[in-house]
Automatic annotation (TrEMBL):
<dbReference type="InterPro" id="IPR032675">
    <property type="entry name" value="LRR_dom_sf"/>
</dbReference>
<keyword id="KW-1133">Transmembrane helix</keyword>
<keyword id="KW-0472">Membrane</keyword>
<protein>
    <submittedName>
        <fullName>Uncharacterized protein</fullName>
    </submittedName>
</protein>
<keyword id="KW-0812">Transmembrane</keyword>
<feature type="transmembrane region" description="Helical">
    <location>
        <begin position="20"/>
        <end position="39"/>
    </location>
</feature>
Length: 108
């Protein structure tokens, strides 16, 4: 014996809202994952950060607020300049390895 239940319009609205919520959740999950992977795999620091020279002639590299989870790669081939300041504030970096700053050139 099978019981049939009637679905009301409220039931349909709930199902549709739930499906939209699931689609948005999947979309934003992929968006976050894509951003994390693209920033993590970028080998050129200049693709991620901005560099410049201040009025007092100090050089800087600004990597703040870039949603970084690791220290960018400071390869001599891609970033062959000594600078005074490296800005890494407001990121998600929780661990720094011993060789993360290899290739980094600083002024003394």
């Amino acid at each position: 014996m099978r019981l049939l239940t009637m679905m009301t319009s409220d039931d349909y609205h709930y199902i549709i809202q739930r499906q939209y919520f699931n689609l948005f959740s999947i979309f934003f999950s992929f968006l976050f994952l894509f951003q994390y992977i693209s920033l993590s795999l970028s080998s050129n620091i200049l693709d991620i950060c901005q560099s410049g020279i201040r009025e007092d002639q100090t050089n800087y590299v600004h990597c703040g607020r870039k949603n970084l989870y690791s220290i960018p790669n400071f390869s001599n081939r891609t970033f062959n300049m000594a600078f005074d300041e490296l800005i890494l504030s407001d990121n998600f970096i929780t661990h720094i390895n011993a060789n993360d700053f290899n290739g980094l050139r600083v002024k003394r």
